[in-house]
Amino acid sequence: MPYTYDYPHPAVTTDIVIFTIRQDELKVLLIKRALPPFQGEWALPGGFVNLDESLEAGARRELEEETGVKDVYLEQLYTFGAPDRDPRERVITVAYYALIPSDKIELRAASDAEGVSWFGLQELPALAFDHAEILQAAHARLAAKLDYSTIAFQFMPKAFTLSELQQVYELILRGPVDKRNFRKRILGLNLIEDTGETRKTGAHRPAKLYRAVDPHRVDVIK
Questions:
Q1: How far is it, in rounded angstroms, from Cα 104 to Cα 107?
Q2: Residues 165-217: pLDDT tens digits?
Q3: Are strands 113-120 and 25-33 parallel, antiparallel or unpaired?
Q4: N or C: which end of the chain has fewer CB within 10 A?
Q5: Helix and strand numbers, DSSP H then E, in the chain
Q6: 111: pLDDT strictly greater than 60
Q7: Do 6 and 22 form a contact (C-beta atoms < 8 A)?
């Protein structure tokens, strides 16, 4: 029997902001829309939630269908519900953000996307819907969580130097971090462990390689 309601019900979508570090820059993944509305314009990956799936399941499905990305850290960000945010109908979107190390990237565009590509935050094209607002909120959340969580480790490969970890902080915060204080704090938290190996780059002496104690979790550290 079909549903009947006294009041109209809005549709629900999920949109996902996917960050990575590539070419010494914080970048976000965008798709070029193949269908109206905003056909040919860049947007965040996302789509309508099916009636038989949870919000997170819908976000992960759309993410894999539109980009080929799966098995990444995903966190709910915020709900965006301006009445005119979608010209098709009344649509409320639950936004998520995802973090992925650059060594795990194998992108592909789905049938409803003309293309998929990474963009630096300083070189963003005009975005469809209210996706510029969503992206700005996601970057603000990510920068804030650096101070009280282990979220930065989601960008790191299995083994990394302290300089590489510091660079991730600086790219997200868009500014320098004091080297001495940073290293003292990170090592004092016991969140990383020495692998016993080193890496030599250029004329510098070999740097110690570390790994995250629990790379699959994002923990609060304050």
A1: 10
A2: 999 999 999 999 999 999 999 999 999 999 999 998 777 789 999 999 998 88
A3: antiparallel
A4: N
A5: 4, 9
A6: no
A7: no
Count of domains in the chain? 2
Q: How far apart are the first and last CA of the chain?
A: 52
- Alpha-carbon gap, residue 143 to 172, rounded angstroms: 6
Q: Read off the CATH number of the domain in which 109 is found.
A: 3.90.79.10
DSSP letter for each residue of 122-181: TSPPPBSTTHHHHHHHHHHHHHHHTTTBSGGGGGS-SSB-HHHHHHHHHHHHTS---HHH
- Say how many residues make up the chain: 222
Same domain membership, residue 35 and residue 108: yes
Residues 6+ positions from 208 with CB-CB distance below 8 Å: 161, 162, 194, 195, 197, 198
| Three-state secondary structure call for residue 73 | strand
Q: What is the CATH number of the domain that holds 181?
A: 1.10.10.10
Question: Are 166 and 160 in contact, with CB atoms under 8 Å apart?
Answer: no
Range of the domain at 100: 11-141
103 secondary structure, DSSP code: G
Residue labelled with tokens 């799936």: 53
Residue type for 100, please?
I
